[in-house]
Amino acid sequence: MTDQSFDHAKAEAFGDQLIGMLNQGSLALMTSIGHRTGLFDSMAGLAPSTSQQIADAAGLNERYVREWLGAMLTGGFVEYSADSKMYWLPAEHAALLTRDAAPDNIAAFAQYIPLLGSVEDGIVDAFKNGGGVPYSGFPRFQEVMAEDSGQTVVPALLSDILPLGDGLVERLQAGIDVLDVGCGSGRALNIMAAEFPNSRFTGSDISEEGLEAGRSAAASAGLSNLKFEVGDATDLGYSEQFDLITTFDAVHDQAAPDKVLASIGRALRSDGLYLMQDIKASSEVQNNVDHPVGPFLYTISTTLHDCFTGSWR
Ligand SMILES: C[S@@+](CC[C@H](N)C(=O)[O-])C[C@H]1O[C@@H](n2cnc3c(N)ncnc32)[C@H](O)[C@@H]1O
Known about the structure:
By secondary structure, this protein is α/β, with parallel strands linked by helices. The protein has helices at about 10-35, 40-45, 50-60, 60-75, 90-95, 105-110, 110-115, 120-130, 140-150, 155-160, 170-175, 185-195, 210-220, 255-265, 295-305, and strands at about 80, 85-90, 175-180, 200-205, 225-230, 240-250, 270-275.
């Protein structure tokens, strides 16, 4: 007996999707490599060039560059003339792949795929035994996150995000106490501390690596109104000490977001303001089916979330 309900066209279409997944997954890794090696940036400034010329311009090994170009050509990223053996990156593609293209530089976000993949063993173990991989177990997490927020949050901070708070910019200019929870490498804080010298800024995070990057940037900029402290967002230990508390991309990945919000509430003065910038998605999976980066977001949240301050709910 054949199963009449088995839709062969549906199975075939899904098979095509899976083959596409192998190619797109491979391209995500190659895109990350193209970003980290500076190959996209180099190619954007070059006329059609041989693999040797591209490797020389980027200061890289030609044999590796040639194979990477094979992936980029077959993946539709670059174009090629078999007669001249020259490759080029179309301007329309460079506009989405180079550092100059920020905030539209998707290649910077592609770094998350190999970064998340590098902790796969620990995540498989967590599926079986619970727990998780700590932020510190992700090589380069703070570096990639800083690059991410450096091309998303930071450019919009002064022009779009802070003006959302009624009278907030004026209060910052006059001088208030500000706390950024889960500040990571502190890029947003460094921008705010420079822009509002009368205000006093504190960055709090569990990551020493992130805090150290923030301290070093503040020292280079000569900022004396900014300090960084190790702190657990679920129990900040402050009581009515801040006029403004911010979280940038720092609540969605909490194991116990309710505890974080309560802790922030205790740290705020009675007329204080809490400003949260976070992922625009739903807690109900069915509402995310058409989300443009749904699988990407669920992959990040499966692998990368606070796994120490409470059980994941
Ligand atoms: C997605 S990153 C955002 C970092 C930064 N706000 C930015 O926009 O670049 C989340 C940050 O929250 C920090 N974090 C996670 N759980 C925390 C906790 N329980 N207490 C304090 N920080 C925490 C991580 O170390 C990480 O730096």
